[in-house]
Amino acid sequence: MGRLAAFGNQLVEVHLWLREELDRLVAGEGGGGDLRAHCLAFCSALERHHVGEDTRGFPAVEEDFPELGPALELLRRDHEMIAGILARLAAMAGRPGEERLAGEVAGLAAIVTSHFAYEERTIVEALNRLDIPEWREDPPEFLRVYG
């Protein structure tokens, strides 16, 4: 029995949604005109996505494809670096100074764009080959689009 959508393809869909939200953030478009609220919502969504990858996605990939261990370790390190930027953004979003916030968002965009591209090149095929029935019934956090 085939899957409606392979897990790797679902990951790409989530990345596309996150990229669109990040592009809106870089352009200064806040949901309802509130850039700070949009920044906090985006940061929360990206953090949930990465935590889900680290706790559910990467272990599943590594179990079936141990040769991807080094690539997954690089991705985990990226997640740690991105988490630091997200923490700074969350702190900045609570203070005046949209120019500094916009600069940090632009830096985040560059890193996340590179991170997503590398992740898609290295693990999408492996995710598409996984067959985890419970994920089909209840997708883990990292395979969900919120918005």
What does this structure look like?
This protein has about 150 residues and is mainly alpha-helical. About 75% of the residues lie in helices and about 0% in strands. The longest helix has about 30 residues, at about 100-130. It is elongated and about 45 Å long.
Structural class: mainly alpha
Mean pLDDT: 88
Strand content: under 5%
Radius of gyration: 16 Å
Fraction of helical residues: over 70%
Which parts are unreliable, with pLDDT below 50 for 5 consecutive residues or more?
none
Count all strands and give the number. Answer: 0
Quaternary structure: single chain
Keywords summarizing the entry:
single chain, about 150 residues, mainly alpha, 5 helices
